[in-house]
Amino acid sequence: KVKDIIIYKDLDGKFVTFKELLGEEEIKEPKTVYYASDELQQASYIKMFKEAGLKAILCDTFIDPHFLSFIEYKTPDKLKFKRIDADIDGALKSGEGEEDTVLADIFKNAIKDEKLTVKFEKLKSQVPAIMITDEYMRRYTEMGQMYGMSNGELNYTMIVNTENPVIAKLKELPEDKQKFVANYVYSLALLSFKKLDANELDRFINDNLQLLDNFIK
Predict the structure, then answer these.
(1) Superfamily of domain 93-216 in the CATH hierarchy
(2) What is the pLDDT of residue 168?
(3) Which of 20, 94, 114, 215 has its CA 20 to 30 A from that of 13?
(4) What is the pTM of this model?
């Protein structure tokens, strides 16, 4: 009963009810409701959603993940929640992405992270790449961290935007520049996804110093 009287704050600061989240159309399968947990960290994702006319709610308190899981448990046939960095909604795409083995090799050889999956999509946004991670694996990992039962490691998928002009020209660059650009794009995607660890931050700073050095030459 409580779920029907709870209101949710959306990304525009407006408040909506549970019924408004579901919409008026007949529900044939669980509806995906997106949410943001950190307006600053997820700012680039929020911007993409707003530009595409997508709705999401704000769930930024400690208890919210548990509450969302509870609502899903009580209404499994009506809705499921996904954080806005957990998936690429169709409305964010300008077309169907195609696998590019050459580009994939450029990124994998530059980044050298066996756990990283690289995929290609045509996005409406001009961001060169974004990171996503499975919603339920992330929830499981975060719960493990809370109880000291997880090392906190997650597998990420980097979505490379083939509509971005930098990505479009990447294959034309010399090998050393390909490596630099691929690493820089990776760092930018990480920066908008999570807090960088010491090694990631050090690499990002060094890359920026190199850019400054090249600029003044």
Answers:
(1) Heat shock protein 90, C-terminal domain (1.20.120.790)
(2) 93
(3) 94
(4) 0.86
